[in-house]
Design a protein that fits this description.
The complex is a heterodimer of chains A (about 425) and B (about 200). Chain A has 5 helices and 25 strands. Chain A has about 425 residues and is mostly beta strands. In chain A, strand 13 and strand 14 form a beta hairpin. With about 200 residues, chain B is an all-alpha fold. Helix content of chain B is about 75%, strand content about 0%. Chain B has 10 helices and no strands. In chain B, helix 5 crosses helix 10 and helix 7 runs antiparallel to helix 8. The longest helix of chain B is centred in the N-terminal third of the chain and has 26 residues. Chain B starts with a helix and ends in a 5-residue tail after the last helix. The chains are: A mainly beta (about 425), B mainly alpha (about 200). At the A-B interface, helix 1, helix 2, strand 9, strand 13 and strand 14 of A face helix 1, helix 3, helix 4, helix 5 and helix 7 of B.
């Protein structure tokens, strides 16, 4: 006795025969619908068509043209490329996957996930504010229980956050898992004011028809001229591949484009050099050909080139990039094939390289303790450029701290390791 | 807000339908179904930290128009002993759902296949084609099949689901699985009845 049997068991008398309007079976031609039934049905159908037409018309308004990243004024020349190097103090043992935004007054806010370990139930999204001199004591911005309550769902664990500033609001997009591992991920949007009070309901994003599983993000979105955001997202169920998700102002997915590259290229980081070009830097997950790859679109993200290697090794680690004011590109990556123990900044005039190493970000633990070399990890870089032209790098330091480097473009341009 | 309410009500319907069906299966009577329905209803409205819909919503997401129809049918069948969806109607719906599911689900697991799911976001051609199908069903008296598509159109037009994709309004993965079972059973039943015809 199964569900399907119950659904199709024939020979029973429908409660709708001759009494309710809409549901006589097709197999009973002797029961003819009355004119009233027909007209009522047609009226409902017309209303549905009208509503669908209005909804479709609304969606035609915004073309998929990215807002070009504009050139900004140059800062004064500084001798060392690093003007600040700060560890954000962490009240929990394990932290990872930092994201950051610049507010309208020039202050910075950083967010990351932290708890006893990655994937633990006590992992929350933490945040801290940088006033130009120091970072505030980190505080929990979004907890697992809060997202569970606000979305009405069981949440097993939280993952990567990505912060976006929209006017005075902070929109925090957070990966969560209800079932299984990271391949069971889905996205949520939490809207906060600048003091991190909730503004409006938490929204669940739907990026996949298959139980909405397997969609993750880790990198900054770009903005379309109509105001929609495009997230360089990635899919992680059965196969890993990048997927561009277009998200409307209310946090709903209104389009998606799967980027047709080889399997195991994921965690895309997008740069937008012009209003029709988008370039993705991709992490390589497979053991074969462990190099950073790049895929490019010349039609605003509609179609994508085959992925090319850029000549930088990639030990299955996330990368980040930012355009410099002189047109060159700054890329943060782990260039050692053996692991994430070396995080280096590279510079190139071309997206496909050649890449010149300009600054080795962190070597303290390597020099101090060669025996624990493999355990050392500087990873998940998040590069951003602020309105004063400074470059900011956030990264995971040994999973115990989030570090922040403030870097002068002028000094970087002259440097080469 | 409307999407939240619609989703919550859908999962309450799922809970009470399944409890009613279980009540009928285990107690082998419609009275059992009523008992199951009552238990389900109480569990869904009690101010518990972990209600049934809390878990089903995390696993299944929003329910589509087809899942709503299947659940209402299951509830009517269990509690009142009446059938809302005839075999022919169920089969017609199942064919559309299985074909649609086979077109969109495999492509969602890899980047190499044409992504027909994307059409559901804003393809007027796709959605008006379904609207025309609903009209044809209406004019031919196939009210249930038309109702399915019309509910999906209303859900799409009024943004009643968290997803703004028409495919998600039309059917979801659980209803795709049930539709597949319906078709497989029909194929087996058909082959079984054909084999019973004596040879001349």
């Amino acid at each position: 006795m199964g569900l399907s049997l119950s659904i199709l068991d024939p020979g029973m008398v429908s409660p709708f025969h001759g009494r309710l309007v809409l549901l006589p079976p097709m197999s009973s031609p002797e029961i003819q619908p009355s004119y009233l039934k027909t007209w009522l049905s047609l009226a409902v159908w017309s209303v549905a068509v009208a509503l669908v037409s209005v909804q479709l018309a609304k969606r035609e308004t915004a073309p998929a043209i990215p807002d070009t990243i504009s050139a900004r004024g140059m800062p004064a020349a500084i001798e060392s490329p690093i003007t600040h190097k700060i560890s954000i103090p962490s009240p929990v043992p394990s932290v990872h996957a930092a994201t950051a935004i610049e507010l309208q007054d020039g202050s910075l806010q950083a967010f990351w996930f932290g708890g006893t370990r990655e994937g633990a139930k006590d992992v929350s999204i933490w945040g801290s504010v940088y006033d130009g001199a120091k970072w505030s004591t980190p505080a929990i911005v979004v907890s697992r229980d809060a997202i569970a309550q606000e979305t009405g769902r069981y949440i097993r664990k939280l993952g990567n956050p990505v912060a976006v500033r929209v006017g005075e609001e902070v929109h925090l997009y957070v990966v969560s898992v209800s079932v299984g591992g990271w391949s069971g991920s889905a996205l949520n949007r939490v809207v906060l004011d600048r003091e991190w009070n909730r503004v409006g309901p938490t929204q669940r994003l739907v990026g996949n028809p298959l139980l909405n599983l397997g969609t993750l993000i880790r990198s900054a979105p770009y903005v379309l001229k109509g105001g929609d955001l495009v997230f360089p997202a990635y899919h992680e169920m059965i196969e890993k591949f990048p997927q561009m998700l277009r998200v409307r102002h209310d946090g709903r997915v209104v389009d998606r484009v799967s980027v047709p590259v080889d399997a195991d290229l994921f965690q895309p980081w997008a740069l937008v050099p012009s209003d029709s070009e988008v370039t993705l830097f991709l992490r390589r997950g497979a053991e074969a050909a462990p190099e950073v790859h790049v895929s490019r679109s010349r039609d605003g993200g509609e179609t994508w080139s085959a992925a090319e290697e850029v000549g930088l090794p990639n030990p299955n680690a996330g990368v980040s990039a930012v355009p410099m004011d002189d047109g060159s590109i700054l890329l943060a990556a782990n260039p050692d094939e053996g692991g994430r123990q070396n995080l280096t900044l590279f510079r190139s005039d071309q997206y496909t390289g050649p890449w010149k190493p300009v600054f080795e970000v962190d070597t303290e633990v390597r020099e101090a303790d060669e025996k624990s070399f493999q355990a050392v990890e500087y990873s998940y870089p998040w590069l951003m450029k602020t309105s004063d032209g400074m470059i900011h790098l956030f990264y995971t330091w040994n999973r115990t701290q989030i570090r922040h480097l403030q870097i002068s473009q002028e000094a970087l341009r002259g440097g080469e390791l | 807000m409307m999407a939240q309410v619609f989703s919550e009500v859908g999962h309450i319907l799922l809970a009470v339908s399944l409890f009613a069906w279980l009540g009928k299966v285990f107690l082998k009577s419609h009275r059992g179904a009523v008992v199951g329905f009552s238990i389900g209803a109480i569990l869904t409205v009690l101010p518990l930290d972990y209600s049934p819909q809390f878990y089903t919503r995390s696993a299944l997401g929003d329910l589509s128009a087809l899942s709503w129809l299947f659940l209402i049918h299951l509830l009517c069948r269990s509690v009142y002993g009446v059938t809302m969806i005839s075999r022919e109607q169920g089969r017609a719906i199942a064919v559309v759902t299985v074909v649609g599911g086979l077109l969109i689900y495999p492509a969602s697991l890899g980047a190499g296949l044409p992504d027909l799911y994307r059409l559901g976001f804003d393809s007027a051609t796709l959605i008006y084609a379904f609207a025309a199908g609903a009209l044809v069903y209406l004019l031919r008296g196939g009210y249930l099949n038309a109702l399915w598509i019309i509910i999906a159109m209303l859900a799409f037009g009024l943004c009643l689901l968290e997803s703004l994709n028409f495919w998600d309004c039309l059917f979801d993965y659980p209803s795709f699985v049930i539709s597949s079972i319906i078709l497989v059973r029909w194929c087996f039943r058909r082959s079984g009845s054909e084999s019973e015809i004596p040879a001349r």
